[in-house]
Design goal:
mainly alpha; minor pseudopilin epsh fold; Four Helix Bundle (Hemerythrin (Met), subunit A); binds manganese (II) ion
């Protein structure tokens, strides 16, 4: 079977974590098919104007920078290290893409899988209580934001909400996980038709959720290695070390050794704390402990070299080695 090139590119874009340059995904249905729950003009403005401008602003902010080769997931995972423009527009692109994916007109909806249904019963007792909790999270979100159904790193379903265009993949958010369902509670999502009646919009949009699609997202999420990355990133000693690593290694890459010369003692101290700390359950294995031991040794060596007044070139090389060792343990990098 011959697949048109743009279809292939679209599939690649949606399945391999949104690669650059980003583009507006096509809606699965026409703007008018979501009515009366969401009117055609709201759908069109939201998709063709709002979402399109998030995509444009994101591409514009990334082109020619060192972030140009990163996937959307990479950009969001370390949102706290990004500019507001990247954080907001990367989040907005991801959030809206998910939202379009899980909405369907009533006649086009498919059924929830047994797997998701069992998980909902386990974590929420019933679909009714899930709905109540979700709509409460969505209606009590102050100002602009999103409500989420996510799979947490320990593979539980959770309902959360975030402000602006943040989402649960981001390091700036407390309750993290992989979103499988989302509702946009920005006024631009409902104001034309519902004005200030957010609760009426929420009840209407709830009926457009295609649980068959959410089931697919659930199955993908519980098997996604991103859950492990999220669990690693919830390791406090790791986060502490990572901060010092980022603030000393990245300047050293461009020849600035001042940060590590000033902070080598702290760098080594955080490495000791990291080795002594308990890793998250999914990571508690020999390879991780061996990796941490090597990393601590390297940090010790760097600290001694700094104290001896080692040359810049030596420190640059050692910092790069420590960074490699670190990412053998940690995986993702945010530069
Ligand atoms: Mn929106």
């Amino acid at each position: 079977m011959k697949i048109p090139l743009f279809t292939l590119l679209f599939l690649l874009g949606t399945q391999i974590g949104f690669t650059q340059p980003f583009f507006l995904p096509k809606l699965p249905y026409s703007y008018s098919e979501y009515a009366p729950q969401i009117d055609a003009l709201t759908m069109e403005t939201h998709h063709a104007k709002h979402h399109q401008s998030y995509v444009n602003n994101l591409n514009k902010a990334l082109v020619g920078t060192r972030m140009e080769s990163q996937t959307l997931i990479d950009l969001m995972f370390y949102a706290g290290f990004r500019s507001d423009v990247v954080r907001n527009n990367a989040g907005a692109h991801y959030n809206h893409s998910l939202f379009w994916e899980i909405l369907a007109p009533l006649s086009a909806q498919s059924e929830m899988s047994q797997e998701l249904s069992t998980a909902i019963t386990k974590d929420f007792i019933s679909m009714d209580s899930l709905k109540k909790t979700f709509l409460n999270a969505a209606s009590s979100r102050f100002g602009s934001g999103w409500a989420w159904l996510i799979v947490s790193p320990d593979k539980k379903l959770m309902i959360t909400s975030t402000s602006n265009q943040d989402n649960p993949i981001m390091d700036v958010v407390t309750e993290r996980g992989i979103p499988i369902m989302a509702i946009d509670v920005w006024e631009h999502a409902y104001y034309l038709n519902y004005q200030n009646r957010r609760a009426d919009y929420l009840n209407a949009v709830w009926s457009l959720i295609n649980w068959g699609k959410v089931s697919e997202k659930y199955t993908m999420a519980i098997n996604d290695s991103l859950l492990i990355e999220l669990e690693k990133d919830s390791w406090p000693a790791m986060m502490e070390f990572h901060k010092v690593m980022a603030q000393t290694f990245h300047p050293s890459e461009s020849g600035d050794l001042q940060p590590i010369r000033k902070r080598s003692g702290e760098f080594f101290a955080k490495a000791i704390l990291l080795t002594a700390s308990a890793p998250p359950k999914s990571l508690n294995n020999i390879a991780i402990h061996e990796g941490l031991t090597k990393l601590e040794k390297k940090c010790n060596e760097i600290n001694s070299l700094v104290k001896k007044g080692a040359k810049d070139a030596v420190l640059i090389k050692k910092m790069a080695e420590s960074h490699d060792l670190f990412h053998n343990v940690q995986g993702l990098c945010h530069d």
